[in-house]
Amino acid sequence: MIGVGCVIAGMGAASLYGNLMILSGTLCMVFAAFSQLSANMANRYYDERHALGAGIDQKISAQRQPTASSMLKECAVAMFLLAIMVGLAILAMCGWWVLPIGIFIVVAGWLCSNGETPLMRTPLSPLVAFFLFGPVCVISSYLVQTIPDALHPIGWYDVQPAVYIGIAFGFLAANANIVYNYVRYYPDLRNCRSSMVTELGRKNSRIIFLVSTLASFATALAMCLSPDTHSGWLDFSPAIVPLCINLYVWHKMRSLPRQQLYRLIGVANANVLLTALICFVVFTLTGLPDENPSSYFGL
């Protein structure tokens, strides 16, 4: 959900300057979906592989249906291969410059979900989520739609909306990761698993969540107030809506009993997707018109 949402945000950024390409954007969404599915399966495989002797909570273990490690591994590899196939289609459509970005995403995904200590299983996971789902995902999907039709070298004016949106969505993705680790605080303590929340504590994690929320709002607001991108009052909705949702989540993190905190995971993830859809709709309505009719189908 988060990866697809960030790609949609990149499509919204492309719409600001009339560079939206539906086919390229759709391929990026499919690539993000398969990549995130592969990473999720790899993370589950890591948890299953390290369950024995790791002090896993016996109550939780007894209540859930065990999943075969081999099946998780095969699913992770299958999703990865499907992502590679979609990536090759994007490469054929956009050119060789996509190859270094694809290699970087593959290497980063491997470091995040595989090895003896995956980065997403460390206290650095919010920072990793910020970087990969924010600037990397948003700017990459934006460039995939912008560079094929570019009539001049890409400069700051061209990438400015994608940079702003990428940073804002990076903070939203980091918040979603913080909420997940916050909900998993007590099970992680029992299972001796390290996360940012277990290292810093629940109170400090809520403070970081609030700071990240304000940083996301400030970044989105700066883009809305920029003379190069501002088109009207409707542009402020991608800044205001996620702020309200994040403040709601922050309040519930403080007030909900821990047995009900799991509900906030879906709210935080949905916040990314909802904000992305708002960006796409608003920027498509207020952005520059697309003068190239063939780009609607990406051909």
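Next protein, fold it too.
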Amino acid sequence: MRKSTRLFLSVLCIALMLLSAGCSTDRDDNGKSASLPDELAESRDSAMTAAKDAALELEGSFADRIMTNLMPYYQDDTVMTTGEYTALLSILTQQRDSLGASRMYVLVPDESGSFRLTADTDSQPWLEDMCTSSVYDEAYSDGLVAAERSGWKKGSSYFWTAYAPLYNSEGDIYAILAADVSADALADHPEWDRTSDSWNKFE
């Protein structure tokens, strides 16, 4: 191959790499792909970092305490009046605040494969059914830090959510830890807001 041709191909490869790095491309479960704007990719990545860092900080005893001290004994919101729940909630709230998240919560799968809400900084109902999700499975079954493909709006605020595996002291994934972070840029990109009529149905 002539030197000039090799040089041209090298420059072309570098240019293509730079172009591909300029945006974040996601792909949904149906094979659709779309480019996530940089400002939204930043919110998504912040959510993933918050979930990952909190899960790493809490792995071991936090999961053990939910597993052994709460789950076998409480099936309703009376758990929220216990000292153990209050202590775990305080720990989770500290993680939320230190990592700049808006909300953090822990999901545990039940026998049917549906995920149930346990500790939650928003104090939503204990064992509320959060259904199933391929993103939950990425975190729980595959051990990955995974983010929702789209953001969402609540009231006048916008958020992005990510999940990380939460390990117990035996090194097993017992639950997943979720983190919601602010995603104000969604106001300018309603196609990435799953609560909007303009949502691109990317999930």
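About the second fold: Residues 1-27, 29-33 have pLDDT under 50 and may be disordered.
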